[in-house]
Amino acid sequence: MSMKILITGAGGFIGGFIVEEALSRGYETWAGVRKTTSREHLSDPAIRFIDFNYGNKKILTDQLLSHKGEYGAWDYIVYNLGVTKCKNPDDFDRINYGFVKNFTEALVETEMVPKQFIMTSSLGAWGVGDEKNFTPIRPTDTPHPNTRYGKSKLKAERHLESLEGFPYVVMRPTGVYGPYERDYYLMMKSIKYGFETSTHHLHLRERFGTSYLQSHRPGSRSAGVLPLGRKSIHFVPVSPICSDRFGKAQGCPCQNSGVVALGRIGHCRKRSYRAGKNQHIKSG
Predict the structure, then answer these.
(1) Distance CA 83, CA 256 (A)
(2) Could you tell me the maximum CA-CA distance found in the chain, to the nearest angstrom?
(3) Per-residue CA distances from 175 to 84, 168, 171, 203, 233 (Å)
(4) What is the gyration radius of the CA atoms in the chain, in angstroms?
(5) Conformational region of residue 10, where left means phi above 0, alpha means psi within -120 to 50, and beta covers everything else
(6) How many CA atoms lie within 13 A of 94 on its CB side?
(7) CA-CA distance, 149 to 130, in Å (whole number)?
(8) Which tens digit of pLDDT belongs to each residue from 34-91?
(9) Which one of 98, 177, 195, 225 has the lowest number of neighbouring Cβ atoms within 10 Å?
(10) Are the beta carbons of 135 and 194 closer than 8 angstroms?
């Protein structure tokens, strides 16, 4: 019998790729998406869909019990749901922390705790990087988030730590770019036209999805919080690489502080990334 995996936030840029990776490994793959979310990039007939009410714990508990009775529990859960932009600042805490709290507590109450729970956090939970001396970031560093987004992600991490015996791993990716992503595509277009940026990021297909699914070993709670892929995070300037690929000289500096890079980045290719619909809820 194949392993069962649930990926929440599967309609987003990152979640959709994790779904693709899970399918390639032969998992029974469940995609947690809202009914209003575009499924344009979730077209594989093997994907099973489910829509949870994360904001109402009672309804959520009933939904989990119903699923358990019909299909059983999941072996692994990748919790990839979250917001990076909000009109109402209070939504950062409500969604990035409150939804995680409701979901994990409901899993415990329904006895549906998976072998491994993998949550997407962000380096925003760590705080601003050292853009002067480029000091590597290590998991042992004390977090110092300076945004509502980063603080909400750290609060969710602390909640997982508080759950006795709950098998979790927290992944803190840096900014991630790749197919269907819009924000970094616009940034690269700016570099193409001569603007310099200090932003650093990781390509989706280089190490991102495989790092997630390699972290699903049972009993990995001791791993705790992981910067994605290495024991430390190193700064890698993106502008010179992109400028070289585009055949452009670097021009006007345009600082974008607080974002750090993981290891090396993939080759920048001049191509059109078509943004997926419904960009409000996404990870990272």
Answers:
(1) 20
(2) 61
(3) 11, 22, 12, 9, 12
(4) 19
(5) alpha
(6) 10
(7) 19
(8) 888 777 778 899 999 999 999 999 999 999 999 999 999 999 999 999 998 899 999 9
(9) 195
(10) no
Tokens of 262: 């993981």
pLDDT value of residue 178: 63
What is the Cα–Cα distance from 143 to 66, expressed in whole angstroms?
39
Residue written as token pair 């990926």? 7
Q: Please give the Cα distance from 159 to 100 (Å, whole number).
A: 8
At 261, list the tokens: 């890079």
Q: List the structure tokens of 16.
A: 């959709």
112 φψ region: left (φ > 0), alpha (ψ -120 to 50), beta (else)? alpha
**DSSP labels for the chain?**
-PPEEEEETTTSHHHHHHHHHHHHTT-EEEEE--TTS--TT---TT-EEE---TT-HHHHHHHHHHHHHHH---SEEEE---BS--SSTHHIIIIIIIIHHHHHHHHHHTT---SEEEEE--GGGTB---TTT-PPB-TTSPPB--SHHHHHHHHHHHHHHHSTT--EEEEE--EEE-TT--HHHHHHHHHHTTEEE---EEEIIIIIHHHHHHT--TTGGGG-EEESSSSSB----SHHHHHHHHT----EEE--TT----S--PPP---PPPPPS--SB---
The pLDDT tens digits for 159-218 are 999 999 999 999 887 766 666 666 666 666 666 666 555 544 444 455 445 555 555 555
Q: Contacts by 49-52 with C-beta closer than 8 Å and gap 24+? A: 50/6, 52/8, 52/103
Q: Is 30:49 a contact under the CB 8 Å cutoff?
A: yes
- pTM of the predicted structure, to 2 decimals: 0.71
